[in-house]
Amino acid sequence: MKILFVGDASNMHNSLARQLRLMGHEAVVASNGSHWMDTSRDIDLSRKPGRLGAVRYVLDVLQALPRMRGFDIVHLASQIFLELKPPKVRRVLDYLRRHNGKVVLSALATDRVYYDACHDGKTYRYSDYRIGTEPSPYVGSAEYYAQKQDNWRLPVMKQYSDYLLQHIDGVVACLWEYYQAYRPLMGDRLAYGGIPIDVDALTLRPLDTEPERVRFFIGIQRARTVIKGTDRLLSSLRRVHARYPDLCQMEVVENLPYNEYTRRMRASHVLLDQLYSYTPATNALIAMAQGLVAVSGAEPEYYALIGEPSLHPIVNVTPYDDEDIDRQLETIIHQKSRLPQWSRDSREFVVRNNSAQVVAQRHLDFWHQLLETS
Length: 374
Description:
Blueprint: E1 2-6, H1 12-22, E2 26-31, E3 43-44, H2 50-64, E4 73-77, H3 86-99, E5 102-107, H4 112-119, E6 130-131, E7 134-135, H5 142-146, H6 155-166, E8 170-173, H7 176-186, E9 190-192, E10 214-220, H8 225-228, H9 230-243, E11 248-254, H10 258-265, E12 270-272, H11 282-289, E13 293-296, H12 300-306, E14 315-316, H13 322-334, H14 339-353, H15 356-372
Parallel strand pairs: 1-2, 1-4, 2-3, 4-5, 5-8, 8-9, 10-11, 10-12, 12-13, 13-14
Antiparallel strand pairs: 6-7
Helix pairs in contact: 1-15, 3-6, 4-7, 9-13, 11-14
């Protein structure tokens, strides 16, 4: 099978492409390398800042289009899969549809469908945007406005989103949240894929005995601290560290390239990931594959979707109460004798549910289903 991935996020499409090649398929990635992560791609679609960068980017896209023909499957990274305004993205979408087989959307980032689900008052108990009936700290923050989140409300975004959903063949969601948002719209044209993790490239760091001090690790994405809740997790970690300086350590890193980031986390025991999620995402999963315990989202709905009845090694945190976050971190410190088993369970969880081979096979099964119904 020939697969083209257009766009990427957190190395997801690149990881999936690598695995598909190992399984005998042809896979090409056209992306910007997930911005500062600078992940691998076959067709570079990086956009430089400024007006000249915008013109150069359009030319790069136009020059790349002839290399983006003749594929069985085109997999788009989110609805806005290029750094262009919706009318121009729509023209590229139409081109890809004309010159390839099935076009499938990766639901892996905020888009109009997810944004609407976050605001409908019934799909989620909490989200990036709301905690219960109240706005989250992200809404109204400088980060919220810098990321132009209000743009999702614009009629042009709805028109484009509706058009795309009418002209794609299916959706594969990488998280429970996106699966839940798309389920009413897509029906049997929706599948859960998960996030592919190259477990063979991430060696388990064995922890054979109880550590003297628990080493906590947190990575800051400078432009995404509030939306992920990293700001609140870091504040909680600092409070707990101040209470137990002899029982824990903390390492804080910021905006590191992917390879350096994974190397730096390897010496720690616990990763603090995100606060407003029902699901562990890439950051948590690459840590767990190396034997770290993840503090992240892991709600019952997520375990039910993936069919995992008993292996639940993720420390689930929710955004309702900062004191509860403190208690969760303190529990890890007080129960640090469990860390060796916790570490092994974390690795096994990723191998079982998110190894690149498992996720690639889910995608292949869905693609074959789409091709058979054409």
